[in-house]
Design goal:
- The structure is a homotetramer.
- Chain A is an all-alpha fold.
- The first copy, chain A, folds into two domains: 9-66, Orthogonal Bundle (Arc Repressor Mutant, subunit A), CATH 1.10.10.60; 76-217, Tetracycline Repressor, domain 2 (Orthogonal Bundle).
- Helix content of chain A is 64%, strand content 0%.
- The first copy, chain A, has helices at residues 25-40, 47-53, 58-64, 68-92, 98-114, 119-128, 133-160, 169-172, 174-188, 190-193, 202-217.
- The longest helix of chain A has 28 residues, at 133-160.
- Chain A is elongated.
- Chains in contact: A-B, C-D.
- Chains C and D meet through α5, α6, α7, α8 and α9 of C and α6, α7, α8, α9 and α10 of D.
- The structure holds a DNA duplex.
Chain lengths: 233, 233, 233, 233
DNA sequence: GATGAATGAGGATTCATTCAT
DNA sequence: CATGAATGAATCCTCATTCAT
């Protein structure tokens, strides 16, 4: 690999001046942008730095993406929205129990997004959405709504089949969303989410949450309470 | 130069020369800064605006805080300190069921934190933790660890009394933490957490999550599954 | 004058770093801006250069004018619109013949605008209006409409008093506007308007045009033609 | 390397290899450039757009013109050349009154210049003269001088025949030139020349100006004034 | 000769920080 | 102490120009 260097500390792209890699450029820029956006946030990431990390000059970036914002949207599309489609279709073909479906949902979300760099985008957007309403709207449309819709569909399936009890889905979906989002945040703001020196094992975390949720939403076997008596009774 | 002795000074009432006691300045600045940092984030908050809201000039702010960064740290340090003491003591005297305790925990947390300015601080810290590791560590020690410890104590109480099943508490606590944190985030990044045009009713949200949690962690009434069969069975 | 230099070739302002001339700054900036806008056009004038010529830094300019466009508008207001008011009021008090009024109109316009640097703004705007519609609209409103209205009022006065014949004022006003605008343009694009090596004497130019106009718009003494016969008759 | 002799070349029809003869390229580029320069001005015209309109790539443009500036000069030089010859000869054969001649002059000028793309060139040159003195001189020699000379000859003819009064022709010519130039400018900077929402009808405009001029330059029927008395007399 | 990907200097604007008053 | 005028580094984006293919 004699050509192409990735100077991570210098803003000056190296290599030959004209390299003509039109096909490869967008992907290289997107990769560099994902890294930097996740690492430093949207506002703090300079486009020139993205270009430099991709091994091109500032101007080249604007050849492929008309603005920083569009660059960011493209990153989100590639890293999340794009994978959502494939993810969704997995569910179309799913034939097991709805419990398994929810299990699959949480675990595959983790593998496809949570465990990847893309998860940093979620944290980024939550942090900076207030300053970039357009980006928030974009993420909302491309990621949040489809995601909620999927979970809602799973829940509905479980209710219809008798696996789950009746619930107000508008609120119940967050029993799945919240732990997943929280897990992602704890990856990117460790000190803020997790007690010091403790790292969560994602698989165990998901299993733990999943069990509570599933137990918590199945049709009440008896009365919904076994809390009738205090600890001192 | 402890006092001024110029004759001309006698033209001015020597008592309360300045309307606002200068000792109050730092506090006013910190209050203003907290509001603005919460509202707009660190980067988007301009020091001039902070000064203006505190009723002083930009230059004066730099008299008390050597830089924007130090101002931020001071804001967080002051706002965090000892918030949990009072809350904790409420639980010492609690004599009801552990289910009620968890109910009280989540609801009073909502009233004391979620619905107040303090929630903005949580969001702020999560957003900026990456850029201020020192702050993250501080928050970790002052808030996260005590908070987790409290929930853990509640859970342990429930297990000991037989109200809750045995669980790996290292993971189970997040069934309470995650929905609460998520609720805070959705307050401050509405468009990113919630499907468009939908606002969560906090009381209903908490009730919904609480019921799932309580059902999800009580001792298994039968087998932990009623998902043995698929939806088509 | 030990302080304050006007480095016309360097962009670095000289003098002490903090000079505190708040009252004087806007005027100095406006003067510098007028010079440069006239000399180089709107697009080609760099704000930094304006600041430097006024002896301040780039940032200082934006302390007084929120944008390049507002700076330009302020220049127009100071150089033209502002004077239009005073000019207009001269006419309110005018008690002579309407012929004298028109004479005064053209000559005083020349003295107040045509012969000053402000005339360069007219040329600038005609050249660049296409690229800056907001500026064109502003000039239209602040300068063109009041100017046309004034001329129209003069004409109407002459018609009412019997000094001028009846005319379609929508078109007749240009018999005054066109020569004045042309005169201004010839100042700033000499080679394009005037035969080489010929400079117009403004007073004689105005007198010549004025006489033609006045003769051309007085009530027809006989028939409007003495062109009934060709040159060979 | 006058010709290529590679055998592989024989696979291609050696005759009309390129659709557009390369000799035509410069002309196509100049045409496209004229359109764009006129429409948007020099600075606002991008070379890439010129190339695109000419159907070639940006690189090709620089093959024929070493810089944007040279392209501009070439455009103007080509577009100006010899435009007035034909027009001039029309007047040689003219046998009517000089009033008719002036009428014909202004109206045919409108048809040949004012209403055509050439008018854009005039406006362009006036706008850019300051930045391209060489162009201004060229325009001066090719257009301004012959044009002024023609009008001057017409005026002289009218004076000689008694149709017009004696005048200082150095100044009187502008009574014709100014309205015509102004008309061109108002075509290309409508918002700047005309009160908002008002469009001039060229024929009526010319008729109006012509009548004033003709009335204004015919031999004084009485005294040159009927402004001896004020409006209140 | 053509192409079009790549370059990078240049320009408007923002804002934390300084310091003369 | 307090002020607020002044600074200038930093950042996004444009576009004339270059040159490997």
């Amino acid at each position: 690999m004699p050509h192409r260097h990735f100077p991570s500390d210098s803003l000056t792209p190296s290599g030959a001046r004209h390299e003509r890699r039109k096909e490869a450029r967008p992907g290289e820029l997107l990769d560099a942008a994902l890294d930097l956006f996740v690492e430093k946030g949207y506002a703090a990431t300079r486009v020139e730095e993205v270009a430099a990390r991709a091994g091109v000059s500032k101007g080249t970036l604007f050849l492929y993406f008309p603005s920083k914002e569009e660059l960011f949207k493209a990153v989100v599309r590639q890293s999340i929205s794009g994978r959502l489609v494939e993810w969704n279709s997995d569910f179309e073909a799913f034939s097991g129990t709805t419990c398994d479906m929810l299990d699959f949902c949480m675990n595959s979300w983790w593998e496809r997004v949570g465990a990847t760099k893309a998860s940093g985008l979620t944290k980024l957007i939550m942090s900076e959405a207030g300053n970039f309403p357009e980006i928030a709207a974009f993420y909302q449309q491309e990621v949040v709504q489809p995601g909620h819709a999927l979970i809602r569909r799973i829940f509905q399936r479980g209710i219809d089949s008798g696996e789950f009890r009746h619930m107000d889905l508008d609120y119940a979906v967050y029993s799945v969303v919240a732990p997943m989002v929280y897990m992602i945040l704890s990856q990117h703001s460790a000190g803020v989410c997790m007690p010091k020196d403790m790292l969560l094992d994602p698989k165990k975390y998901i299993a733990s949450q999943l069990r509570i949720i599933l137990d918590g939403i199945r049709p009440s076997p008896s009365t919904p309470v076994n809390c009738a008596t205090g600890p001192d009774s």
